Model the fold of this input.
Amino acid sequence: MVQTVLFRLLWMVVLVLVQALVLNNVNILGYITPYLYIYIILKADVNESRNSVMLWAFLCGILVDIFSDSPGINAASSVFLAFVRPNVLSLFVSRDALEQGVPSIKTIGIGAFTKYVSVSALLHHSFLVAVSYFSLTSVGEMILRVVLSSVLTVVFILLIDNIRK
Amino acid sequence: MRNLINFLIKYNYWLVFLGLELICFVLMFRFNRYQGSVFFTSVNELAASVYETTSSVSSYFNLRSENEKLMDRNIQLQAELAGLKTIVAELGKDTVSLLPSQYQTFKARVINNSINKDDNYITLDKGAEDGIAPDMGVIGAGGVVGIVYLVSENRSLVVSVLNSKASISCKVRGSNYFGNLKWTGGDSKVATLFDMPNHAEVAEGDTIVTSGFSSVFPEGLPVGTVKSVANNNDGLSYIVKVDLSTDFGNISDVRVFRNNMGEEQTNLEETVKGK
Done:
């Protein structure tokens, strides 16, 4: 248990630092910024309670917010993702198929994992972009930003998960 | 009651979710200027629209007094404008007075003018007493107007460009090919440039200016623009139609040029002709 928590903390520090120091400065075409830190939420154990994952997500989001000078925005989006994650996961994976607990390419297969990550990324990014624009005056730009950033986030996450296995 | 508690326990993650989001949004509105401003302005918008409606109604109530104030102000400004106009009229500094010192200018006002006769003359309100003498050039705001023909003590008669007696030496701006500008009757906006050699480069739209060859006008005063170019029957020259830049139907203030060396130049040229 302690080991899991420490391991996750380590991952969180690394991901937050990568997000804050590198990815937040990635601004391809002025739209595309990948949000890799959602990886930590996506990799939570299936049997872990929603509340616990949401608290982790909140912590992670707040840390990213502190570094990107946007209190609340990333935290709200990642709590939202943690909240809907079990439902997203159940769309693509039956409970029986996932016994080991942690969703990954190895455990649920590349197809299901890609779908799971893509839908999660789209939801998270939509929430984040909607909250940071906070108006509907430039819907086209918002959609473009969500879709392009999601693509990049998904690619990064698949790469990392592929390496870890 | 027990059911409610059971329900809350079962869906407690909803409460946690809403609680965490609440914290996030409080942070957001508290520390992010943009989101905060959007939030508070949209709250304020309702109040603002109410205020706007009331003020747009109430603004009609004092229209009468506003109108009176505006009229007062208008009259005051008109009086001020009239005063300034008289002052400006006395100040003769304009580009014309910046010409080489060889030329001296006099202000004059047109008191009689015609454009529809075969030979048109313009009468000015200045005469010999003001320093005006025959053969002085006259220009207006648009360009060349004519040449002084006769002077009396306080009046002078100007041969307008729109007169068969007038012949003004002109050239195309930017080259030195020149010809004589004459008016052949008809349209008061168009005159003809004769004797322009047919190897000269003239194109539609070129600016025609005074050549400065005669002693009447300094070089480079605007006359008009080329309207069309045609070959003359003599096979040596062009006939160039010129759109005059001066609106002869509407001239009031003009400047009269005195060329301080004009007499010298004329005398010199006359001695050659005499021989």
